Amino acid sequence: MNKQVLITGVAGMIGSHLAEELLAKGYMVTGIDDLSYGSLENLSGSIHQSNFKFYRVSILDFDTLKILAKDVGTIIHLAAVKKISEKDVSLPTLMVNTKGTENVLEAAKMWGCKVVFASTSDVYGMSPDLPLNENGDLLIGPSMIKRWSYAVSKLYGEQLAFGYYNDHKVPAVVIRYFGGFSPRSSFAWSGGHVPIFIRAILNDEEVIVHGDGTQTRSMGFVTDLVNGTILALENEKAIGELINIGNDEELSVIDTAKLIHEIANTGKKLKIKFVPMAEVFGKYKDIQRRIPDLQKAKTILGYSPKVKLRDAIRVTLDEISKVK
């Protein structure tokens, strides 16, 4: 097996943890990132290692991308512009996530690389079929709502991956990440609600909850997401497959805030501010429940999440408290 790997979006939360784990397993890792979301601080554990090389490169720069991909065995494609609100512009999400993914797959076709493409549970949309299964139908909302641009761009990326697999024999695996976090998470909404809640509670600030907080999520710790990614990288049975990766613990947003407050034990009162969904996302209807069916991941990859939500929150709280 060619143990040279190219990671796009390497300076992000998942990418930086993934790089460290692959380096520990003896891989040669080349990482690229334009640092629009990630940071060099996230790479402090990798940047000085002899088997790691970092380049500040956008995935839209195909000429550079194809050079960097020349000798690698696998491209793990994590780079993306994340979910947006109605106040944001949607074209960067659409253009980077579609053209960038096409560039990755074209480079893989050129050099015979395997591709592990990171998609998202957002593509399930408002599907009522729970737990969310890879073979289930998807229910996407109206096209005029900007919030759907992220899910649609990722869904198009999935189709591209399978198109290159079927038409050009590019060995591709699509993994759908469910929500994950770590102490390196973005503290913008693109990083999910858990890190934002943690920071607010540690700083004795209001916890902003969209809607009434009864919507549920299944949030996993980054080590489980990294483990699933590496299993997809190393398992030949995963080629040509679409696989959910994440944690199947389900907890409402409001109860997550209460759990974080309990574990943080700040001695301060939990202050919650409810913000109507329409103020943030316009006519977008929030996905009420999100829980993955992990049977396929277990069967093909031998994957199962190891870190319970309570433990993941405690680890993240401890790390953030040290640098607060």
Commentary on this structure:
- The protein has a 7-stranded parallel beta sheet, sandwiched between helices. A two-stranded parallel ribbon has the order 7-10.
- 38% of the residues lie in helices and 16% in strands.
- The N and C termini lie far apart (42 Å).
- It has 324 residues and is α/β, with parallel strands linked by helices.
- The chain has a single domain, classed as Rossmann fold.
- The chain is globular.
- It contains 10 helices and 13 strands.
- Helix 1 links the parallel strand 1 and strand 2.
- The model has no long low-confidence stretch (mean pLDDT 94).
- Helix 5 packs parallel to helix 7 and helix 5 (193-202) packs across helix 10 (309-323).
What's the short version?
38% of the residues lie in helices and 16% in strands. It is α/β, with parallel strands linked by helices and 324 residues long.
Number of helices: 10
Average pLDDT: 94
How does the major sheet shape up? 7 strands, parallel
CATH topology (level 3) name: Rossmann fold
What integer value in Å does the Rg equal? 19 Å
**CATH top level class name:** Alpha Beta
* Gap from first CA to last CA: 42 Å
What string, H for helix and E for strand, traces the elements in order? EHEEHEHEHEEHEEEHEEHEHHH
Judging from the principal axes of the Cα atoms, what is the shape? globular
What percent of residues are in strands? 15-25%
